[in-house]
Amino acid sequence: IPTAITFADCTPLFFYDPIKNVIANIHSGWKGTVQEIGARAVEKLKSIYECKTENLLCFIGPCIRKDHFLVNDDVREIFETKFEHFCKKYDIISKANSFNEKGEQYKIDAVLINKLILKEHGLLERNIIDSEICTVCNSDDFHSRRVEGIDYEVNTGIMMLK
């Protein structure tokens, strides 16, 4: 049973429970991250398939990384408000020392936020595997909205059960 998601710079989360033999692909853009879509997926896996969080594996695929995820005050404020508890403990948001037509820009570590959300919802740190691949830095190998502009193409992540 194959499942697929498409993404350019957004964070793809691939879940697998080797005990229940269940998979899930989640597309976590910045809005999905704010809505804690990864945690919602964990809750669905628990309620529908009776998965146990200590058995769940999550692979974080190639996506934009903090150095390239630039936002303005509007998005920064949303993240600071929603993830205030993380921002106090971790280096989630920092000034980018750059400006655009909307003003000063900030860097946000959406990957770290997703990891912290998953850990907060019971996934074991050792079971959260990060590809550590930046789509912007590796745009020769992966599509990136930030690099390609409005006519960007997408990457496809596929998981399959036998």
Plain-language structure description:
The structure is a single chain. The protein is an alpha+beta fold. The protein is built from 6 helices and 9 strands. The chain has helices spanning 30-34, 37-49, 73-82, 84-89, 110-120, 145-148; strands at residues 2-7, 11-17, 22-28, 57-60, 70-71, 93-100, 103-108, 128-130, 155-160. It has a 4-stranded mixed sheet. Strand 2 (11-17) and strand 3 form a beta hairpin. The protein is globular, with a radius of gyration of 16 Å. The protein starts with a strand and ends with a strand. The mean pLDDT is 97.
Quick recap:
With 162 residues, the chain is α+β, with helices and mostly antiparallel strands. It is built from six helices and nine strands; from the N terminus they run E-E-E-H-H-E-E-H-H-E-E-H-E-H-E. Strands 3-2-4-8 form a four-stranded mixed β-sheet.
SSE diagram, text form:
Blueprint: E1 2-7, E2 11-17, E3 22-28, H1 30-34, H2 37-49, E4 57-60, E5 70-71, H3 73-82, H4 84-89, E6 93-100, E7 103-108, H5 110-120, E8 128-130, H6 145-148, E9 155-160
Parallel strand pairs: 4-8
Antiparallel strand pairs: 1-9, 2-3, 2-4, 5-7, 6-7
- How much helicity do the residues have? 25-40%
Give the structural class: alpha+beta
Task: Give average pLDDT, whole number.
Answer: 97
Strand order of the largest sheet: 3-2-4-8
H-E order: EEEHHEEHHEEHEHE
Low-confidence stretches: none
How many strand segments? 9
Largest sheet, in brief, is: 4 strands, mixed
Termini gap:
7 Å
Rg calculated over all Cα atoms: 16 Å
Q: Helix tally?
A: 6
Estimated share of beta-strand residues? 25-35%
Cα shape: globular
